[in-house]
Known about the structure:
By secondary structure, the chain is an alpha+beta fold.
Amino acid sequence: MVKASKPFLIIILCCAMTSVYAQHSFKLTNIPGMTRYQDSLINLSEGVQNAPDNATRFSLNAQFIKTLVNALKTPSSDKYPFDSLKRISILQSPDKNFRIFSWYLPLDDGTYRYFGAIQMASKDGKLKLFPLIDGTENLKDSNAITGNKNWYGANYYEIVPMTANGKTTCYALIGWKGNNAKTSKKLIEVLSFEKGEPVFGKAIFDQKQNPGKNRIIFEYNKLNSMTLTMEKSMNMIVFDHLAPFNPEMTGNFEFYASDLSFDAYKLSGGRLKLVENVELKNAPNDKDELYIDPKNKKIQPIKKL
């Protein structure tokens, strides 16, 4: 039943979003209408997360997608914050060029399915909407450069513009990617736009081991937390150094967790340079909740930053 639902949702996303162009104006005037859309989206998203089975979950998510597309087709909807819609991530690029929406469906077998969209204003004054189709299952190479229709799905919680010579060249997206019943993943994805189309993955990571990475993926034991966040005061994306519980478990990520040290990627000239053994002295902050599995509320965040 779940497998039959996936193509259906892909069709909804592609047909509804690919050719969306709404006239853009400088001021959002239809606030009551957008508020009604938001209320509907809140109710549907709560239903999705509390659904008793996959079939109900996918059915409600299909309704959620249709409602979200209709909302984002509304003229000047890019001005509406959707700030009461807590079940999905909505990130706006610092340069105001686009917004990226992402969310996940927890499935009965402990795996996850990801959904999303990119909304952006074009130079001719129209709004464009790109569906993000989770292609994780079909990607033979997790390091592959992809488009929006074979996206390496994730739930993003931070966006970091990468600049060189005063110009933004791409964006680092930091996200959570629940994997299965045993492990979770986090990642640093790279989003750029080529000929107006979104492209995911770019070789901007400078490191001696495993060079040529287009995205960085971390995998670790599901019951553990992992810090992965942009530390602006250091101009670095900092993260826990993950290691196996003992050397015999190397490569078996079910047995990986933080060894209580930190590494980082330093932003420099539009690139990310690996820096090992970084010292962090910051107090805990409100991003701590992003370091744990968002589905399992019994897991308490470890206050590290």
